[in-house]
Design a protein that fits this description.
oxidoreductase, Rossmann fold, 13 helices, six-stranded parallel β-sheet, about 375 residues, alpha/beta, enoyl-[acyl-carrier-protein] reductase, NAD(P)-bd_dom_sf, fatty acid biosynthesis, binds NADPH dihydro-nicotinamide-adenine-dinucleotide phosphate, Mito_Enoyl-ACP_Reductase, seven-stranded mixed β-sheet, 17 strands
Length: about 375
Amino acid sequence: VDKVEAVVYSSYGAPSQVLKWHSYGLPALTRDTVHVKFLASPINPADVNQIQGAYPIKPPFVALGNEDNFSTDGGDNDKVVKAAVGGNEGVAEVIAVGDAVSGLKKGDRVIMAKTGHGTWRTYAAGPPEDFQVVPNATSVSLIQQATISVNPCTAYRMLKDFIPPQQGKCDYVIQNGANSAVGQAVIQIAKAWGLKTINVVRNRYIIAIIAILRQELTALGATHVITDDQLGSFETKSLVKSWVGKNRLLLGLNCVGGKSATEMARYLSANGKLVTYGAMARAPLTLPASMLIFKNISFYGFWVSKWAETHSKEERSEMLADLVQLMAAKQLKEPRWTAVEWNEKAVKEAVENGIQGYGKGKQIVLF
Ligand code: NDP
């Protein structure tokens, strides 16, 4: 291999304007580096925000490969000097290993060690620290390998780290954006761990469509599915009360923000926790004082990138192994997905479409 093809950006803005198809020489293998070949990389909401310049992790614009090799095929003669490769998640195979490298071998399936590595490219070269092996990767599908590090890990950590498990009792979790890729993982991991879920989805005004959505989430293991429109009603309040009974509803997972999050937090038992991980509605979270004063609800944020940065590779590996095991046991399924072809037009269009939501599923570039 001597040439890398990549989708890069060297300024922030609308993906269709700033993304460029770029080819450059793959840096030669050294004693301390490895070469990897990308197999599949998703397009996540955060990738789009990152290209727009609206994400806290901004990969530096660097010279990619050999300076003499720069070319852009965008037809606008706009020579890329320094750029970042788009994408943050994906699975690659190790194809060459330097003599002094330990811990990685040819054929290993790896994910990126950190957010910001750039995964919309055919090959990459780098030190072994850039990558992390997915244990038993080939016991699960390529799509599962490519999408393991963001959504399933987020669901796993939020369910595991905020509420201490209660021996012999069944706890409830309430979540909005329940049909998002993270939400689907929450439903399935919760079920595998003996937790019950109350799942809030955006209403669809065609009854048949909401019925199908309800059916699909129930098939994944959702205990109850309700719509955001129903959240505030008196009937829903009594219904949820009857579902939860004497059990605890101590954890709320907020993908959406705005009114949906405030309404959802009202259902938490005293001393419950609301963990915000997304802001799909782009509306601020309003907190009534009564929730703080009388119910002692506490509010947290979770960011999987920060988690990976502040925990050891061993801890991450333990989580990956647990997730692979759940996947191999068919307790955690592939997210809904659509394939994106590896060519400039298809990738740019897919990124511009950005967040596809439940209907079409996660867009995944197949190399
Ligand atoms: P998906 O594309 O799978 O799902 C998007 C979800 O958002 C769908 O449920 C969709 O519902 C809902 N949605 C879209 N627009 C709105 C809106 N205006 N109001 C309410 N709901 C809306 O996304 P992911 O699962 O990949 O990500 C979901 C969120 O979680 C994103 O904000 C993402 O950035 C964040 N995230 C955060 C992480 C972290 O570490 N903090 C890690 C992973 C993801 P519908 O079907 O009704 O359109």
